[in-house]
Amino acid sequence: MRTPSDTTQRALEYIGGLYGPHEFATLMLNKAAPEQIDLDRAELEALLKRQLVALENVASGVKRPRVTRDGDSLLQAIARKH
Questions:
Q1: pTM of the full predicted structure?
Q2: C-alpha distances in angstroms, 72 versus 15, 61, 79?
Q3: Other C-beta atoms lying within 10 Å of the C-beta of residue 26
Q4: Fold held by 4-81
């Protein structure tokens, strides 16, 4: 489990350029409308690798990305910084 200082550090890394604007936009879109995310997006792969997004199986058997607790914490930390 990440501590708040870890989340703050990740937010600062985003702001400092470690996370690109496309990754952040994909994370925001995934939070708002996960059904609209193309599973082949390179940004999604980066978010999966960083465990900010996970894939879940929905009732129809299709995989859909969802924002993880870490991803949600990152979004909240960045919102507080801006």
A1: 0.75
A2: 16, 25, 11
A3: 23
A4: Arc Repressor Mutant, subunit A (1.10.10)
